[in-house]
Write a structure and sequence with these properties.
Layout lengths: L3 H17 L3 H15 L4 H6 L12 H14 L21 H10 L1 H8 L11 H15 L3 E6 L13 E4 L2 E4 L6 E3 L14 E7 L9 H10 L5 H8 L1
Parallel strand pairs: 1-5, 2-4
Antiparallel strand pairs: 2-3
Length: 235
């Protein structure tokens, strides 16, 4: 079981990470949750204390809390919070009071959701992966066999189905709904076709993105104010 100090540390570390990497909404909410725990409050401490795990971030516990709340927003079970969440078209500031109220009122729904693993599949990473795959294909003239550990929903195994661009170059399917244009600061030294002859992923709890539950698991794990990431994932 988490100590109060460790719970506060996990929430604050993730708050800093979210703020640094472009999610002011999550950064603010998690910092306020950390202060609530630090001040002796039990709303958030009781919710996460039993979920400790033997890792530096306790199995992404802070993100699992945020994904659990986000899932309620996405499924219409937190209507008072939706106006603050850009992932569902919200834009109102001062999210904390509504967030705190949802955690208070929906505790019974949140407890089992926080136990779910954090399932992300950031297709934006394919922009970096494609650089290496194009280089390998160019250097060897051979097709690729893709084997991914921790594949989640396996979306990065389909990197050759996406649209890329930047540095004066473009590559991939120009009609793809997954738009990664602008994520390359420079073009690859050589642009060449890449032929994939095998794709395999392994994951202890793979996600099926062709199901409603699979899509919801992935979407809930995206930071709610990062709408570009949301658009890429849905594409």
């Amino acid at each position: 079981m988490l100590s109060r100090d460790r719970a506060c540390l996990l929430l604050r570390e993730q708050a800093n990470t979210c703020s640094t990497f472009g999610s002011p909404l999550y950064g603010d909410v998690l910092e306020r949750a950390a202060r609530e725990v630090e001040g002796g409050g039990n709303l958030f401490f009781d919710l996460i204390a039993e979920h400790d795990a033997p890792s530096s971030r306790s199995g992404a516990l802070a993100l699992r809390l945020m994904a659990a709340v986000h899932r309620l927003v996405l499924t219409g079970q937190a209507p008072t919070l939706s106006p603050h969440y850009p992932s569902v078209g919200g834009f109102q500031p001062n999210t904390w009071p509504a967030f705190e109220r949802v955690v208070t009122d929906q505790r019974d729904l949140l407890v089992p959701l926080i136990a779910l693993p954090c399932q992300t599949n950031e297709v934006g990473r394919a922009a970096a992966l494609a650089f290496g795959f194009i280089e390998i294909a160019s250097a060897t003239g051979r097709p690729l066999r893709l084997l991914e550990v921790g594949a989640s929903a396996g979306l990065n195994l389909r990197f050759d189905q996406y649209r890329y661009g930047g540095g004066g170059a473009s590559w991939g399917d120009q009609e793809s709904p997954v738009d990664l244009v602008g994520l390359w600061k420079e073009a690859p030294p050589v642009l060449t076709d890449v032929r994939v002859v095998e794709r395999r992923g392994c994951d202890p709890r793979p996600v099926d993105p062709t199901t409603a539950e699979g899509r919801l698991s992935l979407e809930a794990s995206i930071w709610a104010d990062q709408t570009e990431r949301f658009a890429r994932l849905r594409g």
